Amino acid sequence: MIVACGQTVCLYHSPDLIHWTFASEFGAGIGSHDGVWECPDLFPLPVDGDKDNVKWVMLVSIGADPAFEEGSRTQYFTGSFDGTVFTPDEASQRIRWMDYGRDNYAGVSWSDLPEEDGRRLFIGWMSNWMYAPQTPTEGFRGAMTIPRELSLETRNGEAMLIQKPAKELEAARIPVLSLKNASVQEINAACAGLELDAYLIEAKLPRGTSAGFRIKAGAQEQTVAGINAQTEELYVDRSASGKADFHSLFAGVHSAKLAAPAEVYDLSIYVDRSSVEVFAGGGQAVITDLIYPGPSSAGLAAFTEQEEQVFLSLELYELASSAAAGGRK
To answer: How many angstroms separate the CA atoms of 153 and 68, rounded?
Structure first.
């Protein structure tokens, strides 16, 4: 059992889940301590799918502290575990975040998946203690992220945590648009008049192309998700995403560095009524953000830094509700 203990985590053993013996403590002098440590998880993953090369992954969330504008976040460590002591590797000597948005916190993974499945599945709480009690909602208070498959892949010589949407989400897809080698003008002409509620954008761009999408756009509102080729970063800009006056730190731009970017940039953007979940770099760079647009802000448009730049491919899907998707084949 792994338990959060203020600014560290402690590991315990038990033969019967009643009597517990202390095994070890981890966290002093390593990682972020910008808030209380919470919601730990510990599990093994093969590196690059090699079952003979396994590392252990420890997730530790940190609570919000008014001194730090990011609020609640989740960090991860990789290393070895001998059943008693977790030993971090060299890459874990620096702080590594699971998600570079503001709204993926306190998540843990499923246990007891069938061995033949073999995946490690994760889901997070889609909010932030910086403003969770103040979000402008009626009838509900927060939601969960989409479930994600976790893996370790080597990037820049180190094993990095990769997140990809769980494959079961494909059952919710309803094809709307498919384009190849399309200009912004072609894409926006095809998207004109679309007012989708929940949807998925999957796009590929040549490396060096700064581009993205304006989501839930209206006369005065839009959320921007894209890639900055100059800095090789994924970003989400919710500065004008809609209602944001409930907290002074809600509006802003959040970014994640693309580690060892390939010759083709990839973007997967899951959009719901009050959230965006963006994946790039094959799931290495991830940003999850809440948004609160008005009901009339339903536009969708692509953009590029230069007019001649094109999207190698664009797939647009409407996403059915979970109840409807459950009946689809």
So the answer is: 30
